[in-house]
Design a protein that fits this description.
Radius of gyration: 22 Å
Number of strands: 0
Shape: globular
Structural class: mainly alpha
Strand content: under 5%
Number of domains: 2
CATH architecture of the largest domain: Orthogonal Bundle
Oligomer: single chain
Length: 456
């Protein structure tokens, strides 16, 4: 039987964009949910805003560890589809849902009794109490939030990323409307403050999970997979496979999140203006990161499909195309960050504020350093996506953890404080950590994984 002709790089690029653009947009829409919560609570009160920022940060730290099971499903389902194994598609996805739900129930006590934990972490009693009030409601959203991760991965592996986008976009106005009613007591609703914000968040998560489950189980082309048929039956072998791949992914995300949490803590030692500038610069960097994350997700699907089909040429070409596209966007972001840093930072501030000028000047310096780590941030998240496509997660976890915690955080501290470079030095430390991760992970993929695959 004649083998099909290899796809051109242009064909790979089109396929990646068809998959990736809706994912990029959905990631940006997800950020918009966070932004609207922050803005609306800022209108309500400073203490309420501080409490929900603290509570949502705690929620995210716990969530990111459990999200590894959902992310693992993306590569596993893509590989099973490439191999034509429809049974394995169903088994992996179901056990991803099972593990996500079990994790969500297991961490529920942390949400319910979060107040004493936050007090031990040095938070003010009033803020800790209000954050616990928020988490006692929002914590019930951990299970649907994690199920959303699995269902998004399942649909993305089938290249139904437009559904993921539309469900996320629906969530944004629903979240705004519920916040407006329940935080402030508008439209005849009770004024609930932080509890209103928690109810809005929980409602959006439940709605998103129900909609995605309806599409995953009800789309005509997906019905043959019978995702929810006899859903209650455990599959210990598939559960173990998802756990082995998913736990390292969650720990990798936790290590990266810890790098930026530690940088915020150290920046706070330099003063409120430095911390404000740090937050603004990170928000801008996060916007560009969403593009790389969406392309990385798309690359996981394309590489996973090729790996499942045992097509070494398609795997290599898809990986090269995705890497080139991510680098091209990183170069464009570098140009923008270097050309108009003050203008970008000023978008977040009222120039009439007495402290605005200092924040803009310092934020512009940080943004010029962020231009450096654009390239490395793009490459590390792309390498992780490629490695997940070939179901390689345990060694990358160690490589990323060493890069962020053994190299990045000590470099940030050393440059910022003993060497006296301040906040700019702290950000150069982030560059060092991300550069180490990008190098080690890319070498892992191209030398350790592509070499053996090409030799099949």
């Amino acid at each position: 039987m004649n083998k099909p002709a290899p796809l051109s790089y242009a064909t790979h690029a089109r396929a990646l964009l068809v998959l990736g653009l809706p994912l990029i947009a959905s990631h940006l829409a997800q950020m918009l949910l966070h932004v609207t919560d922050t803005v609306m609570l800022g209108w309500y009160g400073v203490t309420a805003l501080a409490a929900v920022v603290l509570g949502s940060s705690a929620f995210f730290i716990v969530f990111i560890l459990g999200s590894g099971f959902g992310i693992a499903v993306l590569g596993m389902v893509a590989s099973a589809l490439g191999a034509g194994d429809t049974t394995q598609v169903r088994r992996n996805t179901r056990m991803g849902l099972w593990l996500s739900a079990l994790y969500g129930f297991a961490v529920a006590p942390l949400m319910w009794w979060s107040g004493p934990i936050l007090l031990l972490a040095g938070q003010k009693p009033e803020v800790a109490a209000m954050a616990q009030e928020y988490l006692r409601i929002a914590g019930f959203g951990m299970v649907p939030a994690l199920l959303i991760m699995v269902l998004k991965s399942y649909l993305a592996a089938f290249e139904r990323t437009q559904i993921v986008l539309w469900v996320t976009l629906i969530s944004v106005p629903v979240n705004v409307a519920l916040n407006w009613a329940l935080i402030f007591g508008n439209w005849g609703a009770p004024e609930l403050g932080v509890r209103g914000a928690a109810i809005a968040t929980l409602s959006v998560q439940i709605i998103g999970a129900v909609l995605l489950a309806a599409f995953a189980g009800g789309l005509r082309e997906l019905r043959q997979f019978e995702l929810f048929h006899r859903f209650w039956r455990p599959d210990l072998q598939a559960m173990a496979q998802v756990f082995r791949l998913g736990l390292p992914i969650g720990l990798t995300g936790l290590a990266e999140g810890g790098l930026f949490q530690a940088s915020a803590l150290m920046m706070g030692w330099l003063g409120a203006e430095a911390l404000a500038a740090h937050g603004i610069a990170l928000e801008l960097a996060a916007l560009t990161f969403m593009v790389h994350l969406g392309l990385s997700n798309a690359a996981t699907v394309r590489v996973g499909r090729a790996d499942g089909a045992r097509d070494a040429r398609a795997l290599r070409d898809a990986a090269a195309t995705a890497t080139a596209m991510s680098l091209a966007f990183a170069v464009a972001a570098v140009v923008v960050f270097l050309a108009i840093p003050e203008t970008l930072v000023a978008l977040f501030l009222d120039r009439a504020n007495p402290g605005a000028a200092g924040i803009i000047a310092f934020g512009a310096q940080l943004l010029m350093v962020a231009a450096l780590f654009q390239m490395f941030d793009a490459m590390q998240v792309m390498a992780l996506g490629l490695l997940r496509g070939v179901q390689d997660t345990r060694v990358p976890m160690w490589l990323a953890s060493v890069s962020y915690w053994v190299i990045g955080i000590p470099a940030s501290y050393l440059l910022a404080f003993p060497l006296g470079l301040g906040g700019v030095g702290l950000w150069f430390g982030l560059v060092v950590g991300l550069a180490a991760a990008a190098t080690l992970l890319m070498v892992r993929f191209w030398r350790e994984r592509i070499g053996p695959i090409s030799a099949r």
